[in-house]
Each structure stands twice: as structure tokens, then as C-alpha cells.
Design brief:
alpha/beta, 12% strand, Rossmann fold, 43% helix, Helicase, Ruva Protein, domain 3, five-stranded parallel beta sheet, single chain
Length: 475
């Protein structure tokens, strides 16, 4: 099938380069002016891919990517960046971007990269139209972990899978909460029934209610036909609500009522439908704090958390990194046509194990895919890794005494003094807080007291650095 691709690129020279790069791919191109006209007309046409420069995406960039991804046809987003910014890149990937690639790539490399991404989207689209029962679901028994914390989690998940109670899955962005939910579903009594995933945080509030409960024709402006909601689609199966902590208060009340009465009502309908759904919810938020701030209902929390599982972040199970890297190298060398790639060099694997992975497994997958794309030999080396990852270890260059704690000495060259100082301070703060939280087993009050700051400041810093107290309870 052909991939419908929309180009949103202000720079005419770059736009010509991209058009030329996509000439031989199986992509049908359309172009749009950036700015308000682009956003106003985006939902009027159907696209599989939206390829946009960073400057055409309104701030905050993550929201812009999420809005595009949650259009009815769920187009994938490729962002062309001006420079390598690991933090921004991680946030965009976490928000759902398919890839973030530098606009400075050579014509040949740009053509290879875009062709591979278009082909990846084409395969995914073909797979999507196949029957759900033909898809291979993740299995709890298929994952062998060297991490004690992960083994304990999987053992508990196997027990939970045979039950039919509500389940709350906690963990940072990118750790694989939905993967765990799918694996539990595939291991339980409902495994032959639908697994429907919805992310409340990624939908505008006015559309979320319809997405969950459905609507009748004429229920609101634009409702030209009746539509089933996620609860109906998941009947007899499992409904997975991601980022439940972002659900609006009035929908929290409706969700609680559904859990209690096992009935739903479509928007615009006077009748109720009985539903049989196992509900799983997930979040990367601190729900204790959300309840204290009146942003999340305690009664809904207690209803959801009959059983709660916390997925440990990747930085706390580095022993799993070699097997994960091997798994995704094997996957991408097949997808991207690089059969000669055998693995990683010793230095590259050391860097991958040393990096802190703020984007967790999702970031690791993207880094491995990028490395496979760029690799021209049999082994992935430091050169194929992003600078932030390769800089996680000190390379013996004869001037290692000049290397800052945050990476290599070369990391200073493109930064002002103020920016370099800020980066080093941020790295120190995060390392310091991780150390304290490990010692206090995630106890926020004790950690704040030992750090000499108030708990509110500590919460803010933990949120900034992607730290969750639950991740340290098993320390």
C-alpha cells in the first residue's frame, strides 16, 4: 500500500531535499503551509505520515505531536531537528513521534533514513489491517530478566493474570506499562477477547468522553453517525487506560460509576448498556500527591488499585540491557535490511549500559533502531550512538582528566559557560537525589529533610528529573 505523507516544511531548499529523498519510496506526497492554516485543515484530509520541521510545531512540542498522533487516522510524526538535543528528542519520542532526525544529514543518508521509515510505516499499516487474532501478543513467559526486581514483578504479574480484578500499573514514561498490561491480558482468561488501549492525556477533554463511552448520531456538533466507545469495543476483554492521572475530574466520577454498576451510557442516549470489561489503568504520576492536591479522587484510586504493580525503570535494571539490545538489533536488522550487523562493540555496549535512560525502554528501542540505520559494518560502534549515550562513558583520549561528570570534554565545546554549568548542575542534582532516594527507599519526607529542602521542592525536582518514589521502594 502507498503511504500518504504530508510535508510541513517552511524552508524551500529543505523541502526540495526531502521531496527528492522520497522520490523512490512508496510515498504519496502532499504539502501544507505552516502556521494556523496547517492546524486548521489538518483533520480534513487523511495522512499516514506527517513530516514536519521543529519550527513548524507550536510549543509545547510534545502536545503538538500528541495532537497529530491522535487524529482519527493516527498519522505518525517525523520531526526534522536543527541540532541534536537529547532531552527534547526524548520528550518528542515519549509523546509519540516516530523519529527525530537531524536536517543536516547528507542527501544519501537522508534518502536511506526516510525510505526506511516509510517502509516501516508501510509494514505497520499492513499489519494493522490484519485480524487482531493474527497478531502475536506479548507473553509474560517470553521475557527472561536478569534483574531481581523485574523477576519479582513478572512472578506477581503471573498471579494477577489469572484474576479478574482491576489493576493499576505504575512506572515512568517508556518503561513498558502497556506492554505489561497486554502480556497480563494475553496470559489470562480473557486472552481471546479484545484488548483496547486509550490514553486520556492524549485526547482533548471534549473528545475523551465520546472515546470512552461512545455517542449517538446528533449527540453534538459533528456527530454525523453513532460511534461505539472503548468500553463497548473492549466488552468481554480488557480496557487499558494509560495516564489515568490526567483524566478530568467529571470523567473520574463517570468511570467510578461504571466500575461500580458495570453499565455505560452513550452520549445522547437515554438507555444504558451492560458491559463486562476488566479494567487496567496506568500512570507515571504520583497519585498520592495528585490526591493530596485534589486532582484525583481517592475513591477511584482505591477502586483501581485492588492490585498495583510498579515497573522498575531501566536504569535500575542495567543487567537487562545486553539482552534488550540484542533483541532489538535482531528485530531492526531484519526490518531495515541490515543482515550483516552482528551486535555491538565492547565500547558501545559499555556506553549503553552506563547511560541513565531517562526515556527507558522506549528510548533504548529508538537508539538501537537509529544505530542499525547508521551502521555500515558488522558491529555498532560509539559513532552510531547519539552523543548523549556515547558520552556516558569516559573514552581514553589522553585528556580524560578534562572530562566533566556529565560526559566527554567535547560536550563543552558547543555550549556557553552558563549552559555548561547548568547541565553539570542538573546532572549532579539528579545523581544526588537518586542516591538519597535509594538510601531512604523512596521516602519523600526523609529525603527532603536530609537534602535540606521542603517536600514540595523535592517533588518538583523529582518530576523534572523523571524520578518516582515507587521505583526506589524495592532498593
Amino acid at each position: 500500500m502507498l503511504i500518504r505523507t504530508l510535508l510541513v516544511i517552511e524552508d524551500e531548499t529543505l523541502r526540495r531535499r526531502v521531496r527528492t529523498a522520497l522520490e523512490t519510496s512508496q510515498a504519496v506526497l502532499a504539502e501544507s503551509a505552516a502556521g494556523e492554516r496547517f492546524w486548521a485543515g489538518l483533520g480534513e484530509e487523511t495522512y499516514d505520515l506527517v513530516l514536519a520541521t521543529r519550527s513548524t510545531l507550536p510549543e509545547p512540542l510534545e502536545i503538538s505531536v500528541s495532537e497529530v498522533r491522535n487524529l482519527p487516522d493516527r498519522p505518525d510524526v517525523i520531526v526534522l531537528s536543527d541540532e541534536e538535543d537529547l532531552g527534547e528528542r526524548t520528550r518528542l519520542l515519549a509523546a509519540g513521534a516516530l523519529a527525530v532526525i537531524p536536517r543536516s544529514l547528507s542527501p544519501a543518508r537522508l534518502r536511506e533514513t526516510l525510505a526506511a521509515l516509510v517502509e516501516r510505516k508501510r509494514f505497520a499499516s499492513i499489519d494493522h489491517i490484519k485480524s487482531e487474532r493474527e497478531r502475536e501478543e506479548p507473553r509474560l513467559t517470553a521475557f527472561a530478566s536478569a534483574s531481581q526486581a523485574m523477576r519479582e514483578l513478572l512472578a506477581l504479574a503471573e498471579k494477577v493474570a489469572t484474576a479478574d480484578t482491576s489493576l493499576l500499573i505504575l512506572g515512568e514514561t517508556g518503561v513498558g506499562k502497556e506492554w505489561l498490561g497486554r502480556a497480563i491480558h494475553a496470559s489470562g482468561a480473557r486472552k481471546h477477547e479484545p484488548f483496547i488501549a486509550v490514553n486520556p492525556a492524549a485526547l482533548p477533554e471534549q473528545l475523551l468522553e465520546s472515546e470512552l463511552f461512545g455517542h449517538e448520531k446528533g449527540a453534538f456538533t459533528g456527530a454525523t453517525k453513532a460511534r461505539r466507545g472503548a468500553f463497548e469495543l473492549a466488552h468481554s476483554g480488557t480496557l487499558f487506560l494509560d495516564e489515568i492521572g490526567d483524566m478530568p475530574p467529571h470523567l473520574q466520577i463517570k468511570l467510578l460509576r461504571v466500575l461500580q454498576e458495570r453499565k455505560i451510557q452513550r452520549l445522547g442516549s437515554e438507555s444504558e448498556l451492560e458491559i463486562d470489561v476488566r479494567l487496567m489503568a496506568a500512570t507515571n504520576q504520583d497519585l498520592d500527591l495528585a490526591m493530596a492536591e485534589k486532582r484525583f479522587r481517592p475513591d477511584l484510586y482505591y477502586r483501581l488499585s485492588v492490585m498495583a504493580l510498579t515497573v522498575p525503570p531501566l536504569r535500575r535494571r542495567h543487567e537487562d540491557i545486553p539482552s534488550l539490545v540484542e533483541t532489538y538489533i535482531d528485530q531492526f536488522r531484519t526490518q531495515l535490511g541490515k543482515p550483516l550487523i552482528a551486535g555491538t562493540s565492547i565500547e558501545a555496549l559499555k556506553a549503553l549500559k552506563s547511560y541513565s535512560w531517562p526515556g527507558n525502554v522506549r528510548e533504548l528501542i529508538n537508539v538501537v533502531e537509529r544505530a542499525v540505520l547508521l551502521c555500515e559494518g558488522e558491529l555498532i560502534t560509539l559513532e552510531e550512538l547519539p552523543e548523549g549515550v556515547s558520552g556516558a562513558i569516559s573514552v581514553d583520549t589522553g585528556a580524560s582528566h578534562l572530562a566533566p561528570a556529565t560526559g566527554r570534554a567535547a560536550d563543552w565545546q558547543d555550549k556557553t559557560l552558563a549552559a555548561a554549568r547548568e547541565s553539570i548542575i542538573a546532572d549532579f542534582e539528579r545523581t544526588y537525589l537518586v542516591s538519597l532516594l535509594e538510601e531512604t527507599r523512596g521516602h519523600v519526607g526523609e529525603t527532603a529533610e536530609r537534602a535540606g529542602i521542603d517536600p514540595r521542592t523535592l517533588y518538583n525536582k523529582m518530576k523534572l528529573y523523571g524520578l518516582r518514589k515507587e521505583a526506589f521502594r524495592g532498593s
